[in-house]
């Protein structure tokens, strides 16, 4: 019978912590559903977007990042249209590369790189890591979030010092 108080405690804690960030709870929930809606729209638009492409869809505060690889320019354009048509999407950054999809090994390296970056951000008390989303594709690190310009600079400097980063793309929304 301890279950109900535990559920209530976890729910209350998540509401309190949810209020600590600069996004509303509604925006955080929307950001959880937007990628799935974009992916569904892409599948409806053209099967090659699903079968011959590697596309990562990320959303932060209604800003969508399309990253990855697709073999044809028209597929890149279709992916962007699919993202723009989703309710709640305010802006789309189409960073898809028109090349053959990356290998499983490259994706594993990207995951490792993202983990290293996030770990270093968490360890640095001067970086607002809870307000920064890190996505790595083909060695390119994309940084999204709602931050001040000094916070963005600190995060970018940290990423520059991580071995294996090929390029940094800042897609921040600035609060100052």
Q: What do these coordinates show?
A:
This protein folds into two domains: 25-98, GMP Synthetase, Chain A, domain 3, CATH 3.30.300.130; 104-174, Histidine-containing Protein, Chain: A. The protein is built from six helices and six strands; from the N terminus they run αααββαβαββαβ. It has helices at residues 3-18, 25-45, 48-51, 73-84, 104-123, 149-160, and strands spanning 54-60, 63-70, 91-98, 132-137, 140-147, 167-174. The strands form two sheets. It has a three-stranded mixed beta sheet with strand order 1-2-3. The longest helix has 21 residues, at 25-45. The radius of gyration is 18 Å and the shape is globular. Mean pLDDT is 89; it is low at 10-20.
Strand percent estimate = 25-35%
How confident overall, as mean pLDDT?
89
Radius of gyration: 18 Å
CATH class of the largest domain: Alpha Beta
Largest sheet: 3 strands, mixed
> What strand order characterises the main sheet?
1-2-3
Distance between the termini: 48 Å
Helix content: 40-55%
Uncertain ranges: 10-20
The CATH superfamily of the largest domain is identified as Fe-S cluster assembly (FSCA)
